Amino acid sequence: MPIRYLTADAVRDAEHAAGDLLANGTLMRRASHGVAQVVIDELRRTGGCYGRQVGIVVGAGDNGGDALYAGAALSRRGVACTAVLLAPDRAHRAGLAAFGRAGGRTVETLAGGLDVVIDGVVGIGGHGPLRPAAAEVFGQLTAPADGGPVVVAVDIPSGVDADTGQVHDPAVRATVTVTFGAPRNAHLLAATQCGRTVTVDIGIDPTGTDGDTLSSLTDDEVAALWPVPAPADDKYSQGVVGVIAGSARYPGAAILATGAAVSATSGMTRYVGTAADDVVSHFPEVVAARSLADAGRVQAWAVGPGIGTDDDALELLRDILSTDLPVLVDADGLTLVARHPELVDRRAPTLLTPHAGEFARLTGDELGPDRLAAVRDLARRWGVSVLLKGRITLVADPDGAVLGNDAGSSWAATAGAGDVLSGIAGSLLAAGLTPARAGAAAARVHAHAAELAARDAPIGASDLLAAVRPAIRALRRGHPTSATRVP
Ligand SMILES: NC(=O)C1=CN([C@@H]2O[C@H](COP(=O)(O)OP(=O)(O)OC[C@H]3O[C@@H](n4cnc5c(N)ncnc54)[C@H](OP(=O)(O)O)[C@@H]3O)[C@@H](O)[C@H]2O)[C@@H](O)CC1
Ligand SMILES: Nc1ncnc2c1ncn2[C@@H]1O[C@H](COP(=O)(O)OP(=O)(O)O)[C@@H](O)[C@H]1O
Ligand SMILES: [K+]
């Protein structure tokens, strides 16, 4: 099953559906136990629990309650716990009493030398940035990388919007975030702010909610859906992809996109364009033609990188989009679509793959902080699938369903990396995957390839391309790189 991310409302629905478990405090007990366990694991890794120092920052709601109960459990283990109450008369009363009984102390401000700080300021009930009192407490902490405390966020790092993942300023930056029942949208959309996300089972059913979904594919799912040739297959039957990219003057995009298509699946890759000779000299297996009329049949097209935006490019794009084949449109192709949106008014599957700048060109508006709503809105309005690139890739279908992928590193932020993505995703479309699955699976392999190629040093798109096949192999063998975190 894909990992499903929930909005704050959906979380509340799931909690209320748990009935007595919510009313009698069982959910909170389980949640706080999960938080305490994560803190204990952190302390054990670095020398044990007894005598260690944990600071807790407590807000006015149940998020603070979780943190206080976790503090009580830690105090019982011999951890020295101190808590700053941001709103003393609204702090969770039963949690505060339990904390005091277990030996926890309340203080005006956190001392230095703490091993762990627990962020219990706000969870799914939070709005906007950290308020000044909380901002001051967190502002005084030394970063973990400089020897400061590990920051464990309860549910959501405070100051991060649970639904949109918007990281307000200021906001808590967590080393680990502990959430309950199911991850929230923010755990994907603001993954880098959350650090490692741990999802604790508290006995709620996180699947019973309707409406638009945000999910991500696991490595195992991507491995399972990757096309592999069956005994009866031949070079045609697996889906032939056609790549239209680059030019004789600028062959780079042609080579990168076509090479990625060759690497991603078996079968055949065709190329159409004036870089045909360059492409074939790099990849002799590509069947290349200079014009569409000379190209053979394909099952999907990937069109756009480096094709230019002149009338010839427009006519070519028009011809491709007037077929009834799945089409991926990227880069220059998107600039043309922005000028002529009617081009994508078609029935066959269409996947647009903009980066933020191209997205703004398509919509006429800058991409705001709510990337999820923006990508969903464009997909819905235009009736196409839209893959928004970046560290967190989002692929929206016209029905509102979104698949996301956290690249896990940012080594892919290099020129030409998008051409590689087009080739991978185009070949998956040709193999018959839906646009959303093709886009999300391509993004995941792309991310693994980037991390495999980089190994902690910068890469270019050629390195990324060379790592596509090893990344697929590692994924299929069940030993993916550490590229992606799954809560
Ligand atoms: N229900 C359950 O069984 C379970 C719930 N669980 C836990 O409960 C959490 C949700 O608790 P919740 O609904 O009480 O809201 P919560 O996130 O604590 O914050 C609300 C308070 O914060 C305040 N506030 C808002 N914005 C702020 C800001 N920027 N900076 C500072 N303060 C701000 C706001 O105050 P006000 O705006 O009124 O001043 C309001 O009082 C959830 O995330 C999970 O941890 C788990 O135990 C599992 C079981
Ligand atoms: N900060 C980042 N972290 C991880 N991946 C990124 C980041 N920025 C871009 N990428 C990925 O790298 C690729 C860049 O594509 P694009 O912007 O179209 O570049 P180009 O046009 O130069 O090929 C996309 O797959 C995108 O998701
Ligand atoms: K929090």
Summarize the structure.
The protein has helices spanning 8-17, 20-23, 26-45, 62-76, 93-101, 132-139, 185-189, 191-194, 219-225, 252-264, 276-282, 311-321, 332-339, 356-363, 371-382, 417-430, 435-454, 461-466, 468-476, and strands at 3-5, 53-58, 80-85, 105-107, 116-120, 150-154, 176-180, 196-200, 214-216, 241-244, 269-272, 287-289, 300-303, 327-329, 350-352, 385-388, 392-396, 402-406. The protein is α/β, with parallel strands linked by helices.
Please describe what this structure looks like:
α3 (26-45) crosses α4 and α13 runs parallel beside α14 (356-363). It is built from 19 helices and 18 strands. It is 39% helix and 16% strand. The strands form two sheets. Strands 1-9-18-17-16-15-14-13-10-11-12 form an eleven-stranded mixed β-sheet, sandwiched between helices. The protein has helices at 8-17, 20-23, 26-45, 62-76, 93-101, 132-139, 185-189, 191-194, 219-225, 252-264, 276-282, 311-321, 332-339, 356-363, 371-382, 417-430, 435-454, 461-466, 468-476, and strands spanning 3-5, 53-58, 80-85, 105-107, 116-120, 150-154, 176-180, 196-200, 214-216, 241-244, 269-272, 287-289, 300-303, 327-329, 350-352, 385-388, 392-396, 402-406. The chain is elongated and about 80 Å long. The model is unreliable at 483-487 (pLDDT under 50). By secondary structure, the chain is of the alpha/beta class. The chain has two domains: 3-211, YjeF N-terminal domain (Rossmann fold), CATH 3.40.50; 219-476, 3-Layer(aba) Sandwich (UDP-N-acetylmuramoyl-L-alanine:D-glutamate ligase), CATH 3.40.1190.20. Bound molecules: ligand NPW, adenosine-5'-diphosphate and potassium ion. Adenosine-5'-diphosphate binds next to α16.
